[in-house]
Amino acid sequence: MMKCNKRKKIRKRKIASYILFFLMLTNSLDAENVYAYHIPKTQAEAYPAARINELSSFTYIIKEDKLEYKDKNGNVRGIVSFSYPQFTGSSSFLTKLNKQLQKKSHKYLNSENAANLKESVKYRIDTNSFYDKSEQYYWTTSCTAAYEKDGIISFRMTENWYAGGVHNQSDYGLNYDIKNKKKLTIEDVIAGDSKKAILKAAKKYCGDDATAYNIIKRTKKYNFFLQDGDVYICYGSYELAHGTSIDQFTVEGCYRQTEK
């Protein structure tokens, strides 16, 4: 009888142990589930899903707005065109940026330069005084993605002008940090003293050409675009007193190391 009671006690202890083990296992599984699906409050506030999605994933197209002027035979004799990026995404920053670029294009096509080219084309058509049957006058700006990495994007904008005389060209950049919702300045892309770094590179580029170096030195706002992590400083036709040719020299940029 004592053995029977002893067995019952042992059995009860085993059952109790099993129950305790089951409860501990259940609690452990619940804790793991909570941990797996729970985002700490501070992290959720800092990186809400909508904010992550709207800026970490975006696409763009290059759009062209164009005006064409034709002669009586239907041949295009004059072109005014402006190409620019348009982004897709739900970000309010990208929506605002698209509107700014559209406005820039509208201003370009309705500028004094555009009007002057139109008048020149009209005069040449009316007087039949083009150089030959294929000659076209144009004022165009093309857009090419020159750098794109980790939310930093730079478009090289190349502007060309021809209206019967010499051909002129100038380059500049549209440079953005999409993640941080900002337009990049020269100070953002060159570490340390940007002016000092530019003048050091300019000295090497200009050599004994003191006139060009002094023009660069007096420049207050530099036109630039990014390529392979370097910063390309841009000067158009005649700006450095070099005639119709364009001038570009490079400065080591903050993003060069990301290319290695």
Can you walk me through this structure?
Strand 3 and strand 4 (152-162) form a beta hairpin. The protein has a six-stranded mixed beta sheet with strand order 1-2-3-4-5-6, with helices on one face. It contains eight helices and nine strands. Mean pLDDT is 83; it is low at 1-10 and 18-54. It has 260 residues and is an alpha+beta fold.
Describe the secondary structure blueprint for this structure.
Elements (H helix, E strand, L loop, with lengths): L1 H36 L3 H6 L2 H8 L2 E12 L5 E13 L3 H18 L2 H16 L9 E13 L2 E11 L5 E10 L4 E2 L2 H4 L4 H13 L3 H9 L4 E5 L2 E6 L11 E6 L8
Parallel strand pairs: 2-3
Antiparallel strand pairs: 1-2, 3-4, 4-5, 5-6, 7-8, 8-9
Helix pairs in contact: 7-8
In spatial order, strands of the major sheet run: 1-2-3-4-5-6
Radius of gyration: 32 Å
DSSP summary: helix tally: 8
Return the structural class.
Answer: alpha+beta
Which series of helices and strands comes N to C? Answer: HHHEEHHEEEEHHHEEE
Q: Helical content, roughly?
A: 40-55%
Quick check: average pLDDT?
83
Beta-strand percentage? Answer: 25-35%
Largest sheet, strands/sense/barrel: 6 strands, mixed
